[in-house]
């Protein structure tokens, strides 16, 4: 696992059960929204206890693809 992956995972866990969109992940962690970030988000989405769905983001409230840790 990369350091970026672990950082993203900790952010999503801290916000749980609120979901976060990929734009907010990038903003919160001051990361560029690139293929590397998307790959990490995709990897986290299939981890046990995590899920990706379309819903309002807990931070920006935009209805889009979000990632959350199930409560
Ligand atoms: Zn957001």
What would your notes on this structure say?
With 71 residues, this protein is α+β, with helices and mostly antiparallel strands. It has one domain: Arc Repressor Mutant, subunit A (Orthogonal Bundle), CATH 1.10.10. The chain has helices spanning 3-15, 22-28, 35-45; strands at 20-21, 50-56, 63-69. A three-stranded antiparallel sheet has the order 1-3-2. Strand 2 and strand 3 (63-69) form a beta hairpin. Helix 1 crosses helix 3. The model has no long low-confidence stretch (mean pLDDT 96). Zinc ion (ZN) is lined by residues 20-21, 23-24, 57, 59-60, 62.
Average pLDDT score: 96
Shape: globular
Number of helices: 3
Provide the low-confidence segments as ranges. Answer: none
CATH topology: Arc Repressor Mutant, subunit A
Helicity, in percent? Answer: 40-55%
Structural class: alpha+beta
Number of strands: 3
How big a fraction of the residues is strand? 15-25%
Bound molecules: zinc ion
Count of spatially separate domains: 1
List the strand order in the largest sheet: 1-3-2
Q: If you compute it from the alpha carbons, what radius of gyration comes out, rounded to the nearest whole angstrom?
A: 11 Å
Q: Which CATH architecture?
A: Orthogonal Bundle
Biggest sheet statistics: 3 strands, antiparallel
What is the terminal separation in angstroms? 23 Å
Q: From N to C, what is the helix and strand string?
A: HEHHEE
For the record, what CATH class applies? Answer: Mainly Alpha
